[in-house]
Specification:
It is a single chain. With about 350 residues, the protein is an alpha/beta fold. It has two domains: about 190 residues, P-loop containing nucleotide triphosphate hydrolases (Rossmann fold), CATH 3.40.50; about 100 residues, no CATH class. It contains 14 helices and nine strands. A seven-stranded parallel beta sheet has the order 5-6-2-7-8-1-9, with helices on both faces. Strands 3-4 form a two-stranded antiparallel ribbon. Helix 8 runs antiparallel to helix 9. The chain is globular, with a radius of gyration of 24 Å. It starts with a helix and ends in a 6-residue tail after the last strand. GO terms for molecular function: helicase activity.
């Protein structure tokens, strides 16, 4: 993937991508400035590719550790227990209860490794046209991993009727309707789930007999992934069944479930304030904002309220600013973007300096 990104990026783009994806700076704000024609959207796609792939790899490796842990237990190979917490050593003194509680909270409480979350990336822009442009580029160019090209699990929030037919299939409304049309598949999903449980039990029994092996790990990982997918479908279709049985048109729960499962969400800045975001259980990790200089500061703050650890602002303060009609607001510099404010505070900026037009 690094070879692919390097082959399609110039030096300034690579510096910008590295600044946004630097694993030593997993929190905070990154500013990427690019005049027209310098490949800002291409840089966004490369950043998305790198972040999505690395975060998914971390999730995959953590799941693999869980599978190995379970197989080790099934095979009778004990896992090394965590070191006990020392609450009586000399480093504690009278009244140091806060330190003791802190150490207890940090100590492992279970032997099974923790599964890391899947990628949760929100991409925003001030206009629907800008958002749709990014969606279309993702669908056309796709992302890349070690096995080739892939399309991430993504959702575009917006009216499907106002989108190009190619983009319509990833809109939230379209996916809700697709689920509503699958109401009759619930029993089939339950049957498949039971079959997968039986398959998992068989593999666990085989592990007890012959011990853990690489082939068993691969098969268990495959079954676990399939169970997760079928369980997700069952939960969704149970909600669909409830909606249809009650003749209820309220699909908010279904929308929330879809958004919770999506790894990449694309929407306008204003739509990032919709109620469906407040109901999410899986929080957003990274926010990428395109055309960040064409939005007032308050507009950019909307997606940042979702609690992301990292924000990447992409734009060009030399282009047209946000449109502000009020003269009093203009006098108060309301049209200034967060990008410009941070630049005025000497925040580092990665500049794209190669022109392709």
């Amino acid at each position: 993937v690094q070879t692919h990104i390097s082959s399609r990026s110039n030096r300034s783009q690579l510096i910008a991508i590295a600044a946004a994806c630097d694993p030593t700076h997993r929190t905070g704000i990154t500013l990427l400035q690019g005049p027209p024609g310098t490949g800002k959207t291409s840089v966004i796609l490369s950043i998305l590719n790198f972040l999505h792939l690395t975060q998914y790899q971390q999730h995959y490796e953590s799941v693999l550790q869980v599978v190995r842990s379970k197989l080790s237990l099934q095979a009778g190979t004990p896992i090394k227990s965590a070191e006990p917490v020392n609450v009586s050593g000399g480093k504690y003194h009278s009244g140091a209860l806060e330190s003791i509680l802190h150490d207890i909270q940090k100590a492992p409480t279970e032997q099974t490794p923790k599964v890391q979350p899947k990628p949760r990336i929100l991409i925003c822009a001030p206009s629907n046209a800008a958002v749709d442009h990014i969606v279309e580029r993702i669908l056309t160019e796709r992302l890349r991993d070690g096995n080739g090209l892939y399309t991430p699990d993504m959702i575009r929030i917006g009216s499907p009727n106002a989108c190009h037919h190619r983009i319509r299939v990833v809109t939230l409304d379209h996916q809700v309707q697709e689920l509503m049309n699958r109401a009759g598949e619930l029993e089939d999903c339950k049957h498949r789930y039971r079959s997968l449980l039986n398959r998992r039990s068989y593999l666990e029994a085989e592990c007890k007999g012959v011990g853990a092996s690489n082939s068993l790990e691969v098969e268990m990982l495959k079954v676990r992934t399939q169970l997760e997918e079928v369980d997700r479908d069952i939960r969704r279709l149970e909600v669909v069944k409830k909606i249809k049985s009650n003749k209820d048109e309220d699909t908010d729960q279904l929308r929330t479930m879809l958004l919770d499962d999506a790894q990449v969400i694309l929407t306008t800045l204003s739509s990032a304030g919709l109620d469906c975001f407040s109901r999410l259980q899986n929080k957003i990790d990274t926010v990428i904002i395109d055309e960040a200089c064409q939005s007032v500061e308050a507009g950019v703050l909307i997606p940042l309220l979702l609690g992301a650890r990292r924000c990447i602002l992409v734009g060009d303060p030399r282009q047209l600013p946000a449109t502000v009609i009020s003269q009093s607001s203009t006098a108060a510099i309301y049209q200034r973007s967060l990008f410009e404010r941070l630049m005025s505070c000497k925040h580092p900026v990665a500049m794209l300096n190669v022109q392709y037009r």
